[in-house]
Predict the structure.
Amino acid sequence: MIRTNVLITRIELAKQLGLHESSVQRRLDALVREGRLHHIGPTNGGSWEVIE
């Protein structure tokens, strides 16, 4: 979903995945720690970059 829409929000991800926002945040944090995802710009806004 992030590859398709780099501007997708945590709330939108949670709705589409049927998960709580905090669950999505934990998963995003893990992907960032693993170096597989990077957030560009301000916390409230910005975009995602998927790192291959």
